[in-house]
Amino acid sequence: MNVKSRHHLRADAIDDIEDAVATQLGVDIEADSYESVEFEDSDWEVVLVDGEPLVLYVESETRSASDGSGGAAGGESEPFLTVQGANAYPPERNVVTVDAGAISFVSDGADVMRPGIVEADDSIEAGDLVAINEEGHGKFLAIGRAKTDGSDMVGDSGKVVESIHHVGDDLFEFTV
């Protein structure tokens, strides 16, 4: 991914990001710099936090990206942690935990299915953005959008989280 432009964010934009992440995930980001990055060859809208791609703007539920691009160009979007962001600032809310058997699928960008889920935050509502981690080491593997409430995620069949960004995708591999 080639960087097209990079600029520092205004204080009000930084406040919006910090407030959204604190509200959604129970995480307080402490950083010295926030820079917005646009890419020549991708629709990802990313914020570098102290030089690391830790925040991603994701299209709102009404226009969620089903093409896997994760882009928010032209639509309403909301800030959320990237996989790297979730591992740097582990969320306390909106977390879905998968078992060892689901790791390779989730890491390859597959949507999350009920049989692979061992636990989900009961406060998750359908349409919420969620961070997906694995039960063995607690590492975050993906970011997705809940298709059902957290209390209904554990079960025998069905797709319950649509993958938006995952370990190994272009955004995860991006370095400044």
How large a portion of the residues is in β-strands, by DSSP E? 25-35%
Q: Calculate Rg over CA atoms.
A: 15 Å
Kindly give the count of domains.
2
CATH architecture of the largest domain: Roll
Mean pLDDT: 89
> How are the strands of the biggest sheet laid out side by side?
7-11-10-9-6-8
Which sheet architecture does the biggest sheet show? 6 strands, mixed
User: What is the global morphology?
Assistant: globular
Structural class label: alpha+beta
Work out the number of β strands. 11
Terminal-residue CA separation? 10 Å
Q: What fold name stands as the CATH topology of the largest domain?
A: Nuclear Transport Factor 2, Chain: A
Order of helices and strands: EHEEEEHEHEEEEEH
Fraction of residues in helix = 10-25%
Instruction: Please work out how many helical segments DSSP would assign.
Output: 4
Stretches with pLDDT under 50, minimum 5 residues? 63-74
The level-1 CATH class of the largest domain: Alpha Beta
Topology readout:
Layout: E1 3-8, H1 11-25, E2 34-39, E3 45-49, E4 52-59, E5 77-81, H2 83-88, E6 95-98, H3 103-107, E7 112-113, E8 117-120, E9 129-134, E10 140-146, E11 159-166, H4 170-173
Parallel strand pairs: 6-9
Antiparallel strand pairs: 1-2, 2-3, 3-4, 4-5, 6-8, 7-11, 9-10, 10-11
